[in-house]
Amino acid sequence: MVTARSSAWVPHAVLITGLALVLFPVYVAFVGSSLTASDILDAPMSLVPGPHLFENFARALGAGTVKTSGEPVAAMLLNSLVMALVIAAGKILISLPSAYAVVFFRFPLRRLCFWAIFVTLMLPVEVRIIPTYKIAADLSLIDSYAGLTLPLVASATATLLFRQFFLTIPDELVEAAKIDGAGPWRFLIDTVIPLSRTNIAALFVILFIYGWNQYLWPLLVTNTPSMTTIVIGIRQMIGNGDTQTEWHIVMATTLLAVLPPVLVVLLMQRWFVKGLVEAEK
After folding, report:
1. DSSP 106
2. CA 18/CA 111 separation, integer angstroms
3. Among residues 14, 108, 128, 247, which one has the fewest Cβ atoms lying within 10 Å of its Cβ?
4. Mapping DSSP to helix (H, G, I), strand (E, B) and coil, where does residue 65 land?
5. Contact 234, 77 (CB under 8 A)
6. In this structure, what DSSP letter does residue 42 have?
């Protein structure tokens, strides 16, 4: 007869196995970032960390590789950080008041406005990439932070999630605010936003990672090395050409690219989980 204690090892074993499968490539990248290029090309590559870890990270941050025209990874990280933060904050700042207006205001064609926003979920950046690029080029947004971020700021997904949460706010709370003399702006600032903190935190984490991992749009809208994001930089380091790929720098750069999203998730984990749970209610 299998006891409850012994049966608990089964899900733990599955979790540990899955965790090992996920972390093993990360460990290989860590080992590769501590070796030299010749050590990595030796078959099989050693799985024991080498002595060049800090040297490779310092070189990546300060000089990059030949294939990235010597653009330091630190600049790429800054570009990606600005892009991710502006996209995440911009989507929230636009989606929150738009959802608030759809839920709490009564105006003509209100439902039509909501469905017009909702329909844009079927039009991702990849579908409207040509007109979006044309508008960005006409407005001289190429090779600028505005070009990297503004076309990706509007978010129907965030508007929908905020709307669903706002619908759960009881009418009694709205009536109480009116009796206290609170207008629409005060009700938004003093009541709705404090109630939405966990949802805002959860959305911020999701949207930050979304902005950080963008590839297609930065590839089109940036032409100079100084505006290269970290995702594009890693692709350029592995690009085809006569110059040999410096895999030790590539792996160090890959680990550096993973750190900011991981830190955001870890720092906001409690709010992130709480926001996702409350969004399901």
Report:
1. -
2. 45
3. 108
4. coil
5. no
6. S
The identity of residue 77, as a single letter, is L
Domain architecture of the chain: domains with CATH: 74-279 (1.10.3720.10)
- 8-state DSSP, 182: -
- Output the DSSP codes for 15-30: HHHHHHHHHHHHHHHH
Amino acid identity of residue 124, one-letter, is P
For 57-213, strand residue ranges (E) read none
Contact partners, residue 271, CB within 8 Å, separation at least 6:
197, 198, 201, 202
- Given the structure tokens 């902005």, which residue do they identify? 211
**Helix/strand/coil for 151:** helix
Q: What is the pLDDT of residue 67?
A: 67
pLDDT at 81 (0 to 100): 95
* pTM across the whole model: 0.86
Q: 10 Å Cβ neighbour count for 172?
A: 8
Model confidence pLDDT, tens digit, residues 22-76: 899 999 999 888 888 888 888 788 888 888 888 888 888 887 776 666 678 888 9
Distance CA 185, CA 128 (A): 34
